[in-house]
Design goal:
- The protein has ten helices and nine strands.
- It has a seven-stranded parallel beta sheet. The chain has a two-stranded antiparallel ribbon with strand order 2-3.
- The chain has a single domain, classed as pyruvate-formate lyase- activating enzyme, CATH 3.80.30.10.
- The radius of gyration is 18 Å and the shape is globular.
- It binds iron/sulfur cluster.
- The site of iron/sulfur cluster has 12 residues, from helix 1.
- Iron/sulfur cluster binds next to helix 1.
Length: 271
Amino acid sequence: MVLKEDTDNDFSKDRQGTGTYEWADINANACLGCPHGCLYCYARTNALRYKRISSRDEWLIERLNLKILDKKWPKSNKVIMFPTTHDITPTNLEHCIKVLRNMLIPGNKVLIVSKPHLSCIQRLCSELEAYKDQILFRFTIGSIDEGICSFWEPGAPSPAERYHALEYAFKQGFQTSVSMEPMLHDCHDAIVTFWFLKRYVTDTIWIGKMNKLRTRVDMSSPDNEFMVKDLENKQCDKEILRLVERLKDEPKVRWKDSIKAVIKQYPEVRA
Ligand code: SF4
């Protein structure tokens, strides 16, 4: 992947890892569980596997990790990604602000990733104003289709609210980026979503497929099974290559590992 000149910084530098390590060097979290309840959530799948929760529904209850408040975050040149296995919500916001301040005060750079509640972002922008240069917001918006988002992410803010949170952070002078991973719909929807969001993005827009959806989504539900099959068809290689062809020259676009893997199979495609 080639870094493009207008977005070449510590947050966007080329990393060799996959998943969260494509974005940051260190993962940090302050709680277990997430009321957003995304059907494809990898953190819920892992929590079940390692018996940190006993049912899928238990994931919807947040349990704060109070011990993290005592953690020391010495100044480092590495980027910390926060959070990676939960979200910042109205109910854990105060706790997250304390943890973020502990990271930022020594001078660390923090990538704040969220399906954002507007009220949370307004508060974060106000509380963390002094550390603006150390923060990059990355908001997950996999589609601007309200119905599609409410199916896959039933407890998360609507795409309209996330869009307004992005606009707010941008207008407050923060660095902003978007994760369109996972894409929740087809190639056409991804292109429209990209065009709609990019005006409020100062950094990068990362695009990726929904990974391992058959192991993460509860396939015992016929509705889920229908939607998974539908998404697999919509995100087949041919459609992904159409998307790459359309957006490959956009300087803010970055392809996540799932799309790079498709591109690699077709060496004639220039990304
Ligand atoms: S917002 Fe993130 S952590 Fe929360 S349920 Fe969705 S994918 Fe999981």
